[in-house]
Amino acid sequence: MSHLLPLSRVAKLVGQPRHTLQEMIRNGTLATFDGMVELDELLRAFPEVKWDDDAEFRRVTEIKDKAFARRVRDLVLPDKDVLVARLNELSDDYAAARALLLHYGNVMTWLDEKIDELAENASAETYHALHTVRAFLLRNLSETPQDAVLAQAVIAQERILKLMSAHVTIQPSGHEFFVEGNDTLLEAALRNGVSLSYGCSNGNCGECKARVVSGEVKKVHAHDYVLKQAEKDAGVILLCAYAPVNDVVIEANVAGARDIPVQQLAAKVKSVEVFNPQMAALHILAPRSQRLRYLGGQSIRVGARGTSGRYAIASCPCEDRHIEVHIPRRSGDAFAELLFDGLKANDSVEVEGPYGEFVLDEDSPRPVIFLAFGAGFAPIKSLIQHAMSLEIAESMDLHWLADDAGHYQDNLCRAWTDALDNFNYVPHEPTGDLDAMLKSIVLDYPDLLRFDVYAAGNAAQLQQAREHFVRGGLHEARWFAEAIDR
Questions:
Q1: Burial letters for 292-303: b for 16+ Cβ neighbours within 10 Å, e otherwise?
Q2: Which helix (H) or strand (E) holds 269?
Q3: How many distinct structural domains can be found in the chain?
Q4: Residues 175, 235: one domain?
Q5: Cross-strand partners of 352
Q6: Residue 432 belongs to what domain range?
């Protein structure tokens, strides 16, 4: 019986991103069966992986978590009822495997007796053939298969993964993610950048209703919203109140930029990070009861003490209650002056948004070029982190064309390069000849037709860049831009 593994779990086992495995499938170096990978094929394709030592995988994962500004969580056991259910499922698997082995043993005993019975009155030729078969079977059953130890280690690691996490597939969008620790389905989806529809997130509104297509879930939080009996019979649950026991398929809506309503919330300043006299980051903490829904690349209006301004979000939707905006010091921007001169931790701010449709095309498998002009790095950073959390881009190149504020988060960009094998960062110093710089960038991509380009800067910069990239072969429909000179 084949041991089949889903692609997302294979990625975790071998410490490779999904896009790397998908590229291997496309070029024929990794075979799949209905989207699953057989254990023997896994061992063949990754002979260099040390299955008994995942220290390097843990190190890379930690770098990624820090680079994405996501919290590095302590290992948390699943909810006790979920853990018991998973242990029972593994126990059932073990019992079934044990019963199958006993059956195979009985079959071999019967076969041995049958060979003796047939051999009693058989010709010399038949007698020899029967005993040759017996010797072949006994020899092969007594020998340990070449990859048995490796296979045992892989299966053991996969069982631990299944105990600590469950794989979720969302239909019809095709999004995939893992639920780890004691997260609910909704919490895990948001932490992985999947923008499922929801409202209160605490079981009162029913906005996060979804249908379980396959797999088993358990209620881990009480909810006041009352589901109709017909909904229960159809497998409808509230994502904020349930956790998966095993790998599940869920039918739910994933929101696009136009689906997310404008929200107003009262929040607190977590910190003000001044990079230099021209640029600062405002870190905002949303209240527990009202997390802001948004997509990478969108913007919000922030206000305090009678002043306000609209700024690009620089954080990832996967960052729980944390919202980060980058605010340049500009003449006439009263909120920016307040930020640099008086705003401090625990001050109250009003947040309104999100706005804009400068978001990822999550259905695109193309490699991506990100082009950030000065403070345009903020929405680009948000898009990059969102793409990382979703693992949707084949490759990502970031070109940051600095202004007087410089590459104020240069270390972060270099950390991305260190952590990811499909990310490339190219900083460009301020220049008086933007056309020449853009031309040199375009020349590095002779196959621009393959790419998507996301660019953020002022209107004049974006117009120049668009002309160069389209002239260089980029399809006009694959140019996505956001003007930040509001």
A1: bbbbbbbbbbbb
A2: strand 263-276
A3: 5
A4: yes
A5: 264, 301
A6: 368-483
